[in-house]
Design brief:
238 residues, mainly beta, 13-stranded antiparallel beta sheet
Amino acid sequence: MSEIPRTYPSWLKGEFKSVQKEYTEPTKLLADDGTLLSPGWARHMVFDYDRTKSTPTMRRKEWDFYQISDGRYMIQISFANISIGGYASAALVDLRNPKKNKTAPTALFLGGKDKYVLPPKGDVPNHVKLEIKGIGKATFDVLTEEHKRTIYFKSGNVECHFEMDIPDGLENITTVLPFKDHPKSYFMTRIVCPAAALISGATRSINSLRTTRSAASIGAASTPPTSSSGIGATALHI
């Protein structure tokens, strides 16, 4: 079968060059007044993010989002801190019968400016364990090692445990996208890696998608993607 002629440049053949800058070395993200210094993208979280320079502080938004699926079932685990408060939650979706979704009790909290803080980089070894106590209770525990990430979530009678392999040289996509005419930013890091899950006593091999992102915006944020993966935990000023 003959190839259909292209009507656009081929990225794979090097015919198209991105207008966005790629960063490969450690780069300062924010100026002292919170202005974005480094719009563009990277294959790893090379941006040096200092959350104390994200202003105004009460508009800072940071969150961590995971999506795990074996093609039949999908689990989403999320934590968000929008400075005035936040939440932790999880949901189980039967992709063959999406009307029968199961959602864990959502744990809400107030006053997140200086508590329940995520690390500035999610694709390097770190440990985040948050015992959320507010309107509801939840445990959000993520241990990132050189070759493995372990995720544990518990709220009410819902308990999840995942282990993800991190191969050598695994790349992710970290993007820093400014908003036109505003010192706002959208920041997202993604990774995809294989995972094993323990849910209700049954172990399954599944593909995982972690999307960790943060943003600083004047009241605008994007919804999480449903078919990619990510890593990185920081917030940008909006």
